[in-house]
Amino acid sequence: MRVPVPVIRSDAHLAHDGLIEFLNGTPVPCFESPARAVAIERALAADPTFVFEEPTDHGLDPILALHDPGLVTTLAEAWDDALATGMTDGLRPLLPDAFLTAAYADGHPTSRPGRSHRLWSYAFDTATPLVGGTYHAARVAVDAALTAVDRVHAGAPLAYALCRPPGHHAGPAMYGGYCFFNNAAIAAQALVARGASRVVILDIDYHHGNGSQQLFYRRDDVLYLSLHADPERAYPYYSGTADERGAGAGEGLNRNWPLPERADGPRYLAALDEALTVARDFAPDAPLIISAGFDTFHADPIADLALQTDDYRAIGAAARDLGLATVVIQEGGYAIDALGANVISLLDGLRGA
Predict the structure, then answer these.
(1) Rounded Cα distance, 119 and 96, in Å
(2) Could you give the 3-state DSSP secondary structure of residue 313?
(3) Residue 169 per-residue DSSP state
(4) Measuring CA to CA, which residue among 39, 46, 51 is closest to residue 340?
(5) Using CA atoms, how far apart are residues 240 and 225, in angstroms rounded to an integer?
(6) Where are the domains of the chain?
(7) DSSP H or E run through 214
(8) What torsion do the CA atoms of 121, 138, 36, 203 make, to the nearest 10 degrees?
(9) Is residue 202 classed as helix, strand or coil in its secondary structure?
């Protein structure tokens, strides 16, 4: 029997559109597009056991619990600033042309950027465009994640937050990798705020969740486990090695499994078994948070692993064996024709269907 699954979704993401990114110096249509969420919704709608719900507004406090107020304010105001100063005509998205890197600031007095350009001091790539609907979409994505936490906290064994834009690359005071606010990290923090002392985030996106790692690297209340492509060859390049294991109070509570090119289902599931063993040893006292990326799929246009649709069911079944209620939060996945089937496969594995 298929257990009903709350699916928290909103049309707000549709206004985060008309996006471009730079790929090896060339402007291309952004792979992170509204078509992704639309395809997932269409697939889920064909099964009445997936029950669509709108997110509840949770306000700014959960975001500010992890993200710098300057980042939040800047994302909220950047589009209007750009319109007022002529940086955009309202049709072109905003992308940075300069970055405030650590090397730039080291030993050198830096000017405080004016309102028109302060957005650039929080960005870390040229793949994360901002348009008029971006901030609201990012706020609603956070609300979707938190509403999924609410459903599980109220007794649902599984809830799925169809978050767009995604979140796991967003750090305390930076955005990038298509991400503005870290939806999964904010969900984990919400569980801590409700009294949990041992929360697990399992990140199965192709790309390392550098933002999630940064947010919890020195904390002992959230265990971050990430399976991803080896940063020797894969974005975001500067994090995700196996020797990054946390620091201070968080020593040993950050674990990475970098994977080789064309890693298939058996190779992936072997690494997942190691990660889940670490999760069991941590003895979590809260629902499991899964940062669910599907860019591990063999046909993903910007990735190079080799998972098949049935592998996601096996991933879900393995995670289900932890015996925890689970909040699944949508991250990446850009093979749009297969995306809905892959999401359903994971959710079916998690609910034992």
Answers:
(1) 8
(2) helix
(3) T
(4) 39
(5) 10
(6) 5-67+133-350
(7) helix 210-216
(8) 80
(9) strand
The correct answer on CATH 3.10.310.10 for the domain covering 5-67+133-350 is no
Which residue among 169, 207, 208, 228 is the active-site one? Answer: 169
13 is catalytic: no
Beta-bridge partner residues of 257: 227
Token code pair at residue 39: 């395809």
Per-residue pLDDT tens, the chain, 353 aa: give them. 688 999 999 999 999 999 999 988 899 999 999 999 999 999 999 999 999 999 999 999 999 999 999 999 999 999 999 999 999 999 899 999 888 888 888 887 777 677 878 999 999 999 999 999 999 999 999 999 999 999 999 999 999 999 999 999 999 999 999 999 999 999 999 999 999 999 999 999 999 999 999 999 999 999 999 999 999 999 999 999 999 999 999 999 999 999 999 999 999 999 999 999 999 999 999 999 999 999 999 999 999 999 999 999 999 999 999 999 999 999 999 999 999 999 999 999 999 99
* pTM assigned to the model: 0.98
